[in-house]
Amino acid sequence: MGAAIAQRAGVTEIVGRVLAARGVAPEEAGAYLAPSLKALMPDPSTLRDMDAAAERLARAARDGERIAVFGDYDVDGACASAMLARWLRHFGVGATLYIPDRIDEGYGPNDPAMAALGAVHDLVICVDCGSLSHGPVAAARAAGADVLIADHHLCGETLPEALAVVNPNRQDETAGLGPLCAAGVTFLLIVAANRALRRLGVATPDPLPLLDLVALATVADVAPLTGLNRAFVRQGLKVLAARGNAGLRALADVARLSGPPGSFHLGYMLGPRINAGGRVGEAWLGARLLSTEDVREAEAVAARLEALNEERRAIEAEVLAQALAQAEARGADGPLVWAAGPGWHPGVVGIVASRLKERFNRPAVVIGLDAAGDGKGEGKGSGRSTQGVDLGSSIAALAREGLLLKGGGHRMAAGLSVAGDMVEPAMARLAELLARQGAGREGPSDLRLDGAVGPGAATVALAETLEQAGPWGASAPAPRFAAPAVRIASARIVGAGHVALRLSDGAASLDAIAFGALDAPRPGADSLGDFLLGRAGERAHLAGRLMLDDWKGRRRVKLQLDDAAPAF
Predict the structure, then answer these.
(1) Which of 12-16, 345-349, 353-357, 541-545 has the lowest mean pLDDT?
(2) What are the chain's domains?
(3) How far apart are the C-alpha atoms of 426 and 367, rounded to whole Å?
């Protein structure tokens, strides 16, 4: 199959093998390698309520109405909010961007904020939130505003009484666009609004320059990189490389991003820095950064986000250590891994849940309780799921059953609020619901390999070939290779818990990096970092992904390590 793909698509045999392992058929390889937005772009009108939403937004833009955008505090919400702000600016409309405070307001629209926005705006648009916000939508309408919702989270049987609810995951939706993130939905809304404006004889801006924000949100929200999402990210990376967005340009500079950007940079360099504002700082910073055209403001906000990201890392490390100890003490062989602790910062519980999920290969929930921890207060938590297990629907079921104060999300991630004295019964019930879906049956996660490569074969040309076959991410994992029996010539700690290595096979050498290795415990073993540091001068079997590193104008290849084992 790999050879057939290589011959038909005109790629190297190793790329053919990688695509075959991901289920790409020879006749599909050409379209997979070069996803065309023109070919994959749907008619936005196939989504329910899209025409009504687009026509209302078009009239508001044309007439210069007062518009507010209520967005979530994560990357997806910030990108969707910024896209609308940038598009509306073309019509001379300065939209009010409202991002709720994670601690004081929690996720999604709330009655006081929506009532206040409705009182002074003609139109309120909820992005990346709102599909379950019956009361807040009613509050904005009662105050005099129309409400539109552009979201992708799971919906209930009854929708809020907004003018339009555009959500590919509505229970009555048939368009087949469920994998889109909110920024993707918002992009389709802008395309549809442009079409409505042209019918009114109004000139419209080109939406394609907004694809850098769609790409960033798609990768950061861990949306599957297949179909339309794949085209969005491929085209968005080209827009990002042009550095036209002042905020993204400033953020790339503080993150020391050099060379052409890839999906790795979106997910691991830019995304976490934007998220830092919503996690441990001012929630509005991400949307402000991505929407501004003022270079000085962009540089100042990017610097602030960089500082907050460092603060987030320190908080995360402390909570992770406690959560790991608690989860291991409770036992992690069931369908759910969970931990809850007093004073744990709500802004990092989602990241820590991701770490637990990766560590135990099970859905994980982490809850930060009120500092008193006496069971009388409230906990705010976040969960992450494994492939094939719908966490969002199970969390929503708990909320309907009264075990949670609030909860919802999508298949792979969800948020919740729970009374302190209900944590244990809520988690027991969640474990029961997840077990019905097969959670916990997989055992330790397998490390799938696409082949073997030694230091001499790990060339820049090979890494560039593999990068061109991307983007890589959710549902399209980056190729992973074994480096068998290589000698660890040197190993040293760099940055915040990373380990940098120099590998050798006697004839050639290769640099490698193990991100967060000192905080990556393994079953029955020391952390990956301790293992690597303890094997300096010895041989080991390594597994990881080839990455390109541009430093001072020189391009080189590195091995980004995922795991290691002794070579006896």
Answers:
(1) 12-16
(2) 2-34 (no CATH), 44-306 (3.90.1640.30), 331-436 (3.10.310.30), 451-566 (2.40.50.140)
(3) 12
